């Protein structure tokens, strides 16, 4: 399998050059192959979110390279980065951030319309995704009428609406109770496998992490295999 995501020597500092400078990432090297699901574990505040944001072009590294599907995105301008994100990367966060005034189906349709997909095709794709995670019965419901687990599954579908090749997830089950977390994680893994995604999933739940293909730990700013 070829690499979908590569981080090469990535560093990140906050308050650079100041007495209270904090080095969050210290030469991170990472590869995620196409079709591979990798867990990223670390204590809160260790830099997991920063690493994901750099990998997804939402933030920039102080040094190092980010390569997505063979394209070095490190030096791309904002317009090119936005286009790359829309076409290649899907994001899932701990909190679903669904648009409250729109239904589940509409929340998944909207990013597709922004990407030039027809209404008919966007709705068909949205319904297929909702069905794949078992919430098709909630297609016409607004977020407030759904449970937390249902809302998060809709958020998964929205992240995959534009058929990204790379999925980045930041504690995607972190605000759910254990039973709901397990169900939602199973839905996430099913979608990732069905879509053939490369995925990097940050989690503090070692049981869930152990169900992924590899587990990496962020330790003092570098990645090491989890033991």
From TrEMBL:
<dbReference type="Pfam" id="PF00005">
    <property type="entry name" value="ABC_tran"/>
</dbReference>
<dbReference type="InterPro" id="IPR003593">
    <property type="entry name" value="AAA+_ATPase"/>
</dbReference>
<keyword id="KW-0472">Membrane</keyword>
<dbReference type="GO" id="GO:0016887">
    <property type="term" value="F:ATP hydrolysis activity"/>
</dbReference>
<dbReference type="InterPro" id="IPR027417">
    <property type="entry name" value="P-loop_NTPase"/>
</dbReference>
<dbReference type="GO" id="GO:0044874">
    <property type="term" value="P:lipoprotein localization to outer membrane"/>
</dbReference>
<keyword id="KW-0067">ATP-binding</keyword>
<dbReference type="GO" id="GO:0005886">
    <property type="term" value="C:plasma membrane"/>
</dbReference>
<feature type="domain" description="ABC transporter">
    <location>
        <begin position="5"/>
        <end position="226"/>
    </location>
</feature>
<comment type="similarity">
    <text>Belongs to the ABC transporter superfamily. Macrolide exporter (TC 3.A.1.122) family.</text>
</comment>
<keyword id="KW-0378">Hydrolase</keyword>
<keyword id="KW-0997">Cell inner membrane</keyword>
<dbReference type="InterPro" id="IPR003439">
    <property type="entry name" value="ABC_transporter-like_ATP-bd"/>
</dbReference>
<dbReference type="InterPro" id="IPR015854">
    <property type="entry name" value="ABC_transpr_LolD-like"/>
</dbReference>
<dbReference type="GO" id="GO:0022857">
    <property type="term" value="F:transmembrane transporter activity"/>
</dbReference>
<dbReference type="GO" id="GO:0098796">
    <property type="term" value="C:membrane protein complex"/>
</dbReference>
<dbReference type="GO" id="GO:0089705">
    <property type="term" value="P:protein localization to outer membrane"/>
</dbReference>
<keyword id="KW-0449">Lipoprotein</keyword>
<dbReference type="InterPro" id="IPR017911">
    <property type="entry name" value="MacB-like_ATP-bd"/>
</dbReference>
<dbReference type="InterPro" id="IPR017871">
    <property type="entry name" value="ABC_transporter-like_CS"/>
</dbReference>
<keyword id="KW-0813">Transport</keyword>
<protein>
    <submittedName>
        <fullName>Lipoprotein-releasing system ATP-binding protein LolD</fullName>
        <ecNumber>3.6.3.-</ecNumber>
    </submittedName>
</protein>
<keyword id="KW-1003">Cell membrane</keyword>
<dbReference type="GO" id="GO:0005524">
    <property type="term" value="F:ATP binding"/>
</dbReference>
<keyword id="KW-0547">Nucleotide-binding</keyword>
């Amino acid at each position: 399998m070829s690499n979908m995501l590569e981080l090469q020597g990535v560093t990140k500092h906050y308050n650079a050059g100041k007495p209270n400078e904090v080095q969050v990432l210290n030469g991170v090297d990472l590869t995620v192959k196409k079709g591979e699901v990798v867990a990223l574990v670390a204590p809160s505040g260790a830099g997991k979110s920063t690493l994901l944001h750099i990998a997804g072009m939402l933030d920039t590294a102080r040094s190092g390279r980010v390569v997505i599907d063979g394209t070095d995105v490190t030096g791309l301008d904002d317009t090119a980065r936005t286009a790359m994100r829309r076409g290649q990367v899907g994001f899932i966060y701990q909190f679903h951030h669904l648009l409250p005034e729109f239904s589940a189906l509409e929340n998944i349709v909207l990013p597709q319309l922004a990407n030039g997909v027809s209404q008919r095709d966007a709705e068909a794709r949205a319904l297929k995704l909702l069905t794949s995670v078992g919430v098709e019965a909630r297609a016409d419901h607004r977020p407030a009428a759904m449970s937390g687990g249902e809302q998060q599954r809709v958020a998964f579908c929205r992240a995959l609406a534009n058929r990204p090749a790379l999925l980045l997830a930041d504690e995607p089950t972190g605000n759910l109770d254990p039973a709901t977390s397990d169900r939602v994680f199973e839905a996430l893994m099913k979608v990732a496998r069905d879509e053939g995604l490369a995925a990097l999933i940050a989690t503090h739940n070692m049981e869930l992490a152990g169900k992924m293909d590899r587990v990496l730990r962020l330790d003092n700013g570098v990645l090491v295999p989890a033991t």
